[in-house]
Specification:
This protein is of the alpha/beta class and 290 residues long. It is 32% helix and 28% strand.
């Protein structure tokens, strides 16, 4: 459904945000993972027709988004939740969705109201739909953002850092909501939070400094790090050495337990651990930095 070929984007000052990115994305949930500044938002904005690339080709649902006609066609089939969604704080949730729906061309009042009611139910905001947006929590604002992106029943949904800043309960709720919607459309989830992708996506790409470092099944990335993950218990004040990368740290009264990745762990207390996607991601970042 989406084909990206040798895509490049250079900003003023010769800042290269994307460098020869090539991707094919089909139906279902697709994860785009990378650190802040990797070029994820630039890629999302190009796919949404909001930014023109410097080089390369982009076809979304058969339309060339580098042309005006293609851009307009894609916008009619697209739902977009940007990292920073501009809300109108004095509108209620229902009024905000009604306003966005009119902007999207949903002119039939009965059909529009019916769709808004369905989406409010879908995102769990029916009971708070008539409260002003300025009273919404961060998670509620992200969910109203998902609802506005789904107006018009888009074939493609692009969400940029949807769980950033949310508490654990809201993150799980939003992840599950997106996963439930992925059966009959393409959803691109752009995030720096690896856990969000590991829980929802069966296809992903890792973007770093504008380049694709990995593209494929998350299980393949996990397999790359198998045999290179350990847990290590050390006295307080002592840290893992030998070129190991620390994944996580858990402190107890008399010890600190580290989860680490690296070529080998020579410490006698090191115990092999079953790898996960975060381990694979950090192993990939480590290899790229060497």
């Amino acid at each position: 459904m989406i084909t990206v070929t040798n895509l490049g984007k250079t900003y003023r000052g010769d800042v290269q945000a994307l460098r020869g990115v090539t991707l094919e994305i089909g139906t279902g949930m697709f994860g785009l993972v990378g650190p802040n500044g990797a070029g994820k938002t630039t890629l999302m904005r190009i796919l949404a027709g909001l930014l023109r690339p410097t080089a390369g080709e982009v076809r979304v649902l058969g339309h060339d988004v580098t042309t005006y006609r293609g851009k307009m066609a894609v916008k009619a089939l697209l739902g977009y939740l940007p990292q920073e969604l501009g809300l109108y704080p004095d509108l209620t949730g229902r009024e905000f969705l009604d306003y966005i729906a009119i902007l999207k061309g949903l002119t039939d009042g009965d059909a529009r109201n019916g769709q808004i009611a369905e989406l409010l139910e879908l995102v769990g905001l029916s009971e708070t739909a008539d409260r002003r947006l300025k009273t919404y929590s961060g998670g509620m604002k992200r969910r109203i953002g998902v609802a506005q992106a789904l107006l018009g029943d888009p074939h493609l949904l692009v969400v940029d850092e949807p769980t950033s800043g949310l508490d654990p309960e809201e993150r799980v709720r939003l992840r599950n909501l997106l996963a439930d919607m992925a059966g009959r459309r393409t959803i691109i989830l752009s995030t720096h939070i690896v856990e969000d992708v590991s829980q929802t996506c069966n296809d992903l790409a890792v973007l770093h400094e504008g380049r694709i470092l990995f593209r494929g099944d998350p299980r393949a990335l996990i397999e790359r790090v198998r045999g290179h993950v350990w847990t290590l218990s050390l006295p307080p004040g002592q840290r893992p050495d030998g070129g190991l990368t620390v994944v996580s740290t858990l402190r107890f009264d008399d010890k600190v337990e580290y989860r680490v990745v690296g070529p080998e762990a020579r410490h006698p207390a090191a115990r092999p651990a079953t790898p996960n996607l975060e381990d694979g991601y950090l192993w990939l970042m480590r290899d790229n930095a060497l």
